[in-house]
Amino acid sequence: MKIKVCGNTVLEQLKELSNLSIDYVGLIFYPQSPRCVLQKIKANDFKQLKIPATKVGVFVNASEEEIMKQVDEFGLEMVQLHGDETASFCNKISDQLKVIKAFRITDIDANVDWLVQEYDEVCDYYLFDKGSAGLYGGTGKKFDWDLLQNSAIKKPFFLSGGIGRNDVVALKTFHHPFFYGLDVNSRFEISPGIKNLNLIKDFAEELKN
Predict the structure, then answer these.
(1) Contact criterion met (CB below 8 Å) for 26 and 6
(2) Nearest 5°: phi and psi at 95?
(3) Does the structure show a pLDDT above 80 at 153?
(4) 4 in Cβ contact with 184 (< 8 Å)
(5) Number of domains composing the chain
(6) Which residue segment(s) compose the domain that 68 sits in?
(7) What pLDDT score was predicted for residue 89?
(8) SS3 letters for 120-175?
(9) How far apart are the first and last CA of the chain?
(10) Alpha-carbon dihedral of residues 59, 64, 68, 71, nearest 10 degrees?
(11) Contact at 8 Å (CB) between 197 and 2?
């Protein structure tokens, strides 16, 4: 099971995360997010950072030009599209690098298969997050994972939304043939963008051992 730590804003913490069995690190480029990395980490400093974790940029309804500008300046290896991006837009980006398409689950009876059907051929991974009206992630809440277990998804996906230290058992018992990894953020923070590295370390050890 892969672990992605998102919403990073401190370069020194990113260096330390590389020693904690973290597979992906995410930087948020959505200006309305309190974890937006712009003005917090210099692009070239991050680009020059040598870590084993895959570097992911998170964007919400950004233009292709803006996304590729940040990909180049920050040396991103993958992008996560967390807004209302169409399948055709995802296809344009996936022609250039790997794409995680995020879907916000807002209804208790959401049809996940219907949500993803147009995207199967145009991205590399899915991510499922708890949604709320007018918000693009960041709710810190879970959705009903049974919606995924009962789905016919055929692409590797990340679980996201309110995942914390107390969810280790539930994560280990969650089964789907394409369950690939999980995305953690607010439940492992001291304040927005400042991670609790000890908590992440304990969580990763419990989950992977």
Answers:
(1) yes
(2) -70, -15
(3) yes
(4) yes
(5) 1
(6) 2-208
(7) 98
(8) CCCCCEEEEEECECCECCCCCCCCCCHHHHCCCCCCCEEECCCCCHHHHHHHHHCC
(9) 11
(10) 10
(11) no
